[in-house]
From TrEMBL:
GO CC terms: cytoplasm; nucleus
Species for this entry: Gigaspora margarita
Catalytic activity reported: ATP + H2O = ADP + phosphate + H(+); AMP + ATP = 2 ADP
General function of this protein: Broad-specificity nucleoside monophosphate (NMP) kinase that catalyzes the reversible transfer of the terminal phosphate group between nucleoside triphosphates and monophosphates. Has also ATPase activity. Involved in the late cytoplasmic maturation steps of the 40S ribosomal particles, specifically 18S rRNA maturation. While NMP activity is not required for ribosome maturation, ATPase activity is. Associates transiently with small ribosomal subunit protein uS11. ATP hydrolysis breaks the interaction with uS11.
Highest taxon above the source species: Eukaryota
Name this protein carries in UniProt: Adenylate kinase isoenzyme 6 homolog
Self-association and partners: Interacts with small ribosomal subunit protein uS11. Not a structural component of 43S pre-ribosomes, but transiently interacts with them by binding to uS11.
SUPFAM superfamilies: P-loop containing nucleoside triphosphate hydrolases
PANTHER family, alphabetized: ADENYLATE KINASE ISOENZYME 6, POS9-ACTIVATING FACTOR FAP7-RELATED
Stretches for region LID: 125-135
Length: 200
């Protein structure tokens, strides 16, 4: 795993059959996935897929779990729903879990990290119950999503990004934009090289 969004370290040629990359933005609730995804979508032009919203909208679940106060995800329905869109490339996917998706879908997996006290305030502002706040803070302390990402994707494409303040947010947007531009340039270069080779 890398904690730098350096294209030299993270761009994987094996994943470059798509014309534009798919990026997964994951992390504990409240770390800033939706905010970052929206801003990155505006700056790169790639559409933002808010999976949590999609699950509710298209009923990609098996009902509501009262105890955990969350929807019980139907993994197969979710993967079927997204398969075509993700196979074509060029999406920013925002979800608090990452192991449900096929590994082949993503060119970059960003795991947002937030300090506990900051995360606590954000979840409290959101009106979460004490139980739900504690669960999420524990999950952040034990790096549950980061470990999940490292187990589910190639180490080179998993990058953790701090998301404590506005400066972090701005820097993360700029780095994603730069990374996407580099990725596209590499793909174009590779395609022209392949075209040249086939003409010879
Ligand atoms: P998530 O989608 O991970 O649940 P969010 O994007 O809804 O998180 O953000 C939760 C709240 O925290 C929201 O009010 C925006 C704020 N926030 C997120 N990231 C931030 C950052 N890096 N700096 C300041 N505020 C941030």
């Amino acid at each position: 795993m890398s904690n730098s969004l350096d294209p030299e370290q993270t761009i994987q040629e094996a994943y470059m059959e798509r014309q534009t990359p798919n990026i997964l933005i994951t992390g504990t609730p409240g770390t800033g996935k939706t905010t970052l995804s929206q801003l990155a979508s505006e700056s790169t032009g790639l559409p933002h897929i808010n999976v949590g919203e999609l699950v509710k909208e298209k009923s990609l679940h098996q009902g509501y779990d009262q105890e955990f106060q969350s929807w019980i995800l139907d993994d197969d329905k979710l993967v079927d729903e997204l398969e075509e869109t993700l196979s074509s490339g060029g999406n920013i996917v925002d979800f608090h879990s990452c192991e449900v998706f096929p590994e082949r879908w993503f060119d970059l997996v960003l795991v947002l990290r937030t300090d506990n006290t900051i995360l606590y305030d954000r979840l409290k502002d959101r009106g979460y119950s004490q139980k739900k706040i504690t669960e999420n803070i524990d999950s952040e302390i034990f790096q549950v999503i980061l470990e999940e990402a490292k187990e589910s994707y190639a180490a080179e494409i998993v990058v953790d990004l701090q998301s404590n303040n506005i400066e972090d947010m701005q820097s993360n947007v700029a780095r994603i934009e730069e990374w996407v531009e580099t990725w596209k340039a590499r793909t174009n270069e590779k395609d022209s090289q392949e075209n040249l080779n086939t003409k010879h």
